[in-house]
Amino acid sequence: MIRSMVMENKFLLIRDLHVKVGDKEILRGLNLDINRGEVHVIMGPNGAGKSTLANVLMGNPKYEITKGEIVYEGKVLNDMKVDERAKLGIFMSFQYPEEIPGITVENFLRSAKMAIEDKPIKVMEFKKVLKEKMKLLEMKEEYAQRYLNEGFSGGEKKKSEILQLLILNPKLAILDETDSGLDVDAVKIVAKGVKEHKSEENSIIIITHHNNLLEYLNPDYVHFLVDGRIVKSGDISLIDIVEKEGFESFKN
Question: Could you tell me if residue 143 is inside a domain?
Fold first, then answer.
């Protein structure tokens, strides 16, 4: 069945995905289709499996697929390593970005881009692009020479993640709780960066608890993930249901 669906040239297909961490099953038969050029929002209560889905898509070895398949541009991802997925154009921004002392933002981003594209990048050309993207995100130029996320505030770390998104320009971006803990101004800036990235050639998955970021974007689909499965899909009007009823009415 998966093979016939791949022939439909879907961008991303997730079929009957079961995932466990240790002895605990987190995803229990998750299905999702994403076409190129679409923005999908995934919402759900704590512990539903949202971040698990993000980590599985990126290839975190902590998460074990026990059943089902993830098919991206016709390729089965199940057994691919993180670096292999990155080279295919998959990117994930983290809910809690790590600090990496000793590596500047500029050097990290240039090295990452060269590794993904497998070709050298001229320093001055890269500096010019980096400066443009930092200006868009209202980041001071001095941040390029600071160690990655070291001493950054929560909002600065989230901007740094969106800067990575703009520099690496992935085909599939997974944004895990990017708006978490941000004030109104920071949310607007992050939304501006996501809009800058969005095109007909890429797709975005936004995982969130809130509608803060969504007020500035126009997602194509909203999905409710409850108890390890997507139980409801529709347009942005679904968020009104969550605000009125919560997720309890969708639990088994």
Answer: yes
